[in-house]
């Protein structure tokens, strides 16, 4: 029987899942906000150096000046301000006891899939085309990847995404494994890409 204030068929998440959404959404929102402010300063003063430009590799300025930083015709972090804001709202709603129907969770999943696909492209461009890293971008990458995998695990466990019983059981018990492996691979790529620099 549905709880008061929750429609029939609506599914909510546990407190831990809600808090995870809040943390990842807030982290992405913070990164997007800082990058947006620095982008405005860079537009006002082409000689402006962002605070996170620390060396030839960790250089936010190089990232912000690249074509990839405005993939859709406007600064990428403006998209993040909206997307991560939605994640925070969902997290707050779950903490308040809200539940959502299957279509809502699948739409959320589609958005997260787009997000993780977009940051994967940005990671490739950053490592092998722009040849620089942005620490705030890295924070947004981490937030997006963790969000995607935990949301996927939630949707699989809830039966919204079809999956074999073994996979469902695995994601129920070890939902942290996919994001850790994913982030580990990215960490290794970053380490090997600039190995000479890190070890010099």
TrEMBL record:
GO cellular component, one term: membrane
Domain of life: Bacteria
Keyword annotations: Disulfide bond, Membrane, Oxidoreductase, Quinone, Redox-active center, Transmembrane, Transmembrane helix
Residues covered by the Vitamin K epoxide reductase domain: 14-155
Keyword Oxidoreductase belongs to the record: yes
Bilayer topology: Multi-pass membrane protein
Transmembrane segments: 16-35, 78-97, 103-121, 133-156, 176-195
Entries under SMART domains matching the protein: VKc
Family as reported in the entry's similarity comment: Belongs to the VKOR family.
Protein name, as recorded: Vitamin K epoxide reductase family protein
Organism expressing this protein natively: Streptomyces phaeolivaceus
Organism lineage string: Bacteria, Bacillati, Actinomycetota, Actinomycetes, Kitasatosporales
């Amino acid at each position: 029987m549905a709880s008061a204030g929750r429609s029939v068929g609506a599914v909510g998440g546990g407190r831990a899942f809600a808090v995870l959404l809040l943390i990842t959404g807030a982290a992405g929102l913070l990164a997007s906000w800082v990058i947006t402010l620095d982008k405005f300063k860079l537009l006002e003063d082409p000689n402006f150096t962002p605070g996170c430009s620390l060396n030839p590799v960790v250089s936010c300025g190089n990232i912000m000046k690249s074509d990839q930083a405005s993939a859709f015709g406007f600064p990428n972090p403006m998209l993040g301000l909206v997307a991560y804001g939605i994640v925070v709202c969902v997290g707050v709603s779950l903490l308040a006891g809200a539940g959502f129907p299957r279509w809502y969770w699948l739409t959320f999943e589609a958005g997260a899939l787009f997000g993780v696909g977009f940051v994967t492209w940005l990671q490739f461009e950053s490592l092998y085309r722009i040849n620089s890293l942005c620490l705030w971008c890295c924070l947004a990458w981490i937030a997006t990847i963790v969000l995607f995998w935990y949301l996927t695990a939630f949707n699989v466990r809830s039966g919204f995404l079809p999956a074999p019983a073994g996979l469902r059981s695995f994601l129920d018990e070890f939902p942290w494994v996919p994001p850790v492996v994913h982030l580990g691979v990215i960490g290794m790529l970053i380490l090997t890409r600039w190995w000479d620099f890190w070890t010099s």
